[in-house]
Amino acid sequence: MRCLVTGGAGFIGSHLTERLLGENREVVVLDDFSTGSEQNLAAVAGDPRLRIVRGSVCDPAAVESCMEGVEQIYHLAAAVGVFTIMQKTLDSLRTNLLGTEVVLDAALRHDARILVTSTSEVYGKNTSIGLKEDDDRVVGSPLKNRWSYAEAKALDETFTYLYGSELGVRTVLVRLFNTVGPRQRGRYGMVVPRFVDQALTGQPLTVFGTGRQTRCFCHVLDVVPALVALLDDESAHGTVYNLGSPEQVSIEELAELVIAATASSSSIVKVPYQEAYGAGYEDMQRRVPNCARAAQQVGFRAVHSLRETIDAVIDDRRAQLRTAVAGR
Ligand code: UDP
């Protein structure tokens, strides 16, 4: 079977690509290498079943050039990271809206089944413990830059759903909660690799806001098999699934855990949101998934503990920092 992975050189996409190749599938990666990197695919670069295409999901010709013989599409390409969304808001909005429509059109034309990755951001400021797929969205003003990501992804979901219900495309939607692991970079905002890099280089860990806000961090290797299982399973199509860990941690606790796990002498500093992200920023105070639907459908369970997940990031960042020092 041949699969297209958009965003396949990114953090989650590269782990998915490795998984699909490991199942002896052929993989076409389409990536514009804006936040992805060739290094992420280094372990599989010479594999004859892998083809890497440099191009944007917003370019219909680039997408079309990947489609020959493709039976499954995993659409992961997107502008990601809170820093990216806050600094390049218009570009991000366009990529996240237009790219999904172009890829859905390709699925329709080629009768390929498609999984579209959405985000827990669509729940916005809903702080229920155990957010369910049918829960209401609580989002702020459309003029606040942060919400543009949630708005784009929510519309992507509606598009995907309608391509399924009105046009007969076989679709699966997943809402990824905070997903972390090796290869994730801190420079686009993601807190775990940022804290780990800060701890390993002896800099203060920058806790934004009060630090009392909570998140649940799921290991990427728990998420990736579920993506494949859901798209393979015809009875899973036509709906949306939360994927994440139930283990809640406050951001201040996370900073303390990272300092302990790295045996770092770093301190913790509190940084006001405005300083971190610019004016008009709103954060979510809590974001905890209920994953019963994915558990029932494909047996999804986050098996890695938070400590194991943090340790995996530490090992990866240590190796990266060593390589960077050796290359100077
Ligand atoms: N965060 C932080 N320090 C950082 C980066 C992020 O305190 O250096 C906070 C951020 O404000 C948020 C949480 O960590 O409350 C998770 O941020 P991330 O960008 O990783 O994910 P998201 O906000 O999308 O859940």
From TrEMBL:
<feature type="domain" description="NAD-dependent epimerase/dehydratase">
    <location>
        <begin position="4"/>
        <end position="244"/>
    </location>
</feature>
<keyword id="KW-0456">Lyase</keyword>
<dbReference type="GO" id="GO:0005737">
    <property type="term" value="C:cytoplasm"/>
</dbReference>
<dbReference type="GO" id="GO:0008446">
    <property type="term" value="F:GDP-mannose 4,6-dehydratase activity"/>
</dbReference>
<dbReference type="GO" id="GO:0048040">
    <property type="term" value="F:UDP-glucuronate decarboxylase activity"/>
</dbReference>
<dbReference type="GO" id="GO:0042732">
    <property type="term" value="P:D-xylose metabolic process"/>
</dbReference>
<protein>
    <submittedName>
        <fullName>GDP-mannose 4,6-dehydratase</fullName>
        <ecNumber>4.2.1.47</ecNumber>
    </submittedName>
</protein>
<dbReference type="Pfam" id="PF01370">
    <property type="entry name" value="Epimerase"/>
</dbReference>
<dbReference type="GO" id="GO:0070403">
    <property type="term" value="F:NAD+ binding"/>
</dbReference>
<dbReference type="InterPro" id="IPR036291">
    <property type="entry name" value="NAD(P)-bd_dom_sf"/>
</dbReference>
<keyword id="KW-0520">NAD</keyword>
<keyword id="KW-0210">Decarboxylase</keyword>
<dbReference type="InterPro" id="IPR044516">
    <property type="entry name" value="UXS-like"/>
</dbReference>
<dbReference type="InterPro" id="IPR001509">
    <property type="entry name" value="Epimerase_deHydtase"/>
</dbReference>
